[in-house]
């Protein structure tokens, strides 16, 4: 049996991937919120051999995995694994697979769009014009500027490519230490910084007060990775004091944002609701690849296996 315990908001139900999964056996699909509760997530998985993970709010903890002894595989729609205890998964004999690269082009485009929106102050200007103004302030040109890319996987590599297409100098950093640029050097030199690294205990707060202190006063931070890569208090301080020019954010510490979240009051922040990869192409291809991973696992040749 295959369980899809967290299809909220629903994208899997009725899709081509859903039909393909049915060919593999019984599919138990849950389209209502609730998978973020450990006991409920374990109940939804039940005796399933495979779980297809759609949303990161479902947290596959050691407690959940221990309660589901029949579970042998978790197939993730997407790349992030911060909602899965990979060490516990290995201990319980659960193979974890993801779909790297499926959303790379869409997320990279959204990253550049956020950078441009902040640099050109498009949301602010739009609001002012609708209020009857005709703003004429100076804007930031990206051509000739320096782009710092943290993370050189499929998304980061595509962002670097698009940045070069805009005429930017690109400095790249990788946690694998296979890039020439040092983190601090990028922080000091980059006009735009973009985060595409995996969220781990080591990378949590990758950008904090120390890092903001190194940045140029006119720098822009873009985060389409994970909210926790940036220290929230340090971000609010940097935006509020004008330590940096602005930020383009698609990911947050708590999602969805609450109505009183301080970020909503930051005029120099451009926000989007964790939807950088929400295109028909990404949804179709990513979900199909997640089911392909299930097919390959059941055939004894697992693909896109994530290691702790």
Strand order of the largest sheet: 7-6-8-9-10-11
Number of helices: 11
CATH superfamily of the largest domain: NAD(P)-binding Rossmann-like Domain
Identify the CATH architecture of the largest domain.
3-Layer(aba) Sandwich
CATH class of the largest domain: Alpha Beta
Structural class: alpha/beta
Query: Helical proportion?
Result: 25-40%
> Largest beta sheet, briefly?
6 strands, parallel
Note the overall shape.
elongated
Q: Write the CATH fold name of the largest domain.
A: Rossmann fold
Query: From N to C, what is the helix and strand string?
Result: EHEHEHEHEHHEHEHEHEHEEH
Number of strands: 11
Which stretches of 5+ consecutive residues score pLDDT under 50?
Answer: none
**Whole-angstrom Rg:** 21 Å
Strand content of the residues, in percent?
5-15%
How many discrete domains? Answer: 2
Describe what is shown at a glance.
It contains eleven helices and eleven strands. With 308 residues, the chain is of the alpha/beta class. The chain has two domains: 2-102 and 279-298, NAD(P)-binding Rossmann-like Domain (Rossmann fold); 104-271, NAD(P)-binding Rossmann-like Domain (Rossmann fold).
